[in-house]
Design goal:
The protein has 188 residues and is an alpha/beta fold. The protein has 8 helices and 6 strands. Strands 1, 2, 3, 4, 5 and 6 form a 6-stranded parallel beta sheet that branches. The model has no long low-confidence stretch (mean pLDDT 95).
Length: 188
Amino acid sequence: MSSIVAISGSLRRGSFNTALLRAARDLAPSNSSIEIASIFEFPLYNADLEKAEGIPDPVVRLKERLMSSKGLLVASPEYNSSLPGVLKNALDWLSRPPKDVKTVFGDLPVGVIGATTGAGGTRLCQAAWLPVLRALHVRIFTQRSLLVSKASEVFDENGALVDEKIRNLLTNYLLDFEAFTSTSTRGE
């Protein structure tokens, strides 16, 4: 069984988006598994660095995981009504060199969820991801959305998901995302 790779768009130790991915891993359907990957070691993208040193090892390792995965689940915070720079930077690295985009991302099922402490959820951020994901030629999961607002009330002080409504929404999201990944022609 290949797994779904999950990436948090927050580097914060107590990140609600990373906590959301841990909850997703725990609630994954029985015919699926979710592996949380880290982008913590990715340097800022710089074409001079790429030319001088090539693709950094942490990027290469994540590219390899994505190529053998059945999907990508992104948990993205909303920064200034848009997407977080660290996560955009990670996708910029993962799409290098350009000839690798089809191999790494082509037809890859991708779902975007998010948590924020504000009342508006991550609606603007999730919309901001659409042009980026389209440029990578992925299959964007749009059957459901998961916009967690007031995250400090949804997770306890240890990062455990304690809100039953959100737990049910996440479970249903994952069931439908799993079904979506099973229809991919990736790797054929």
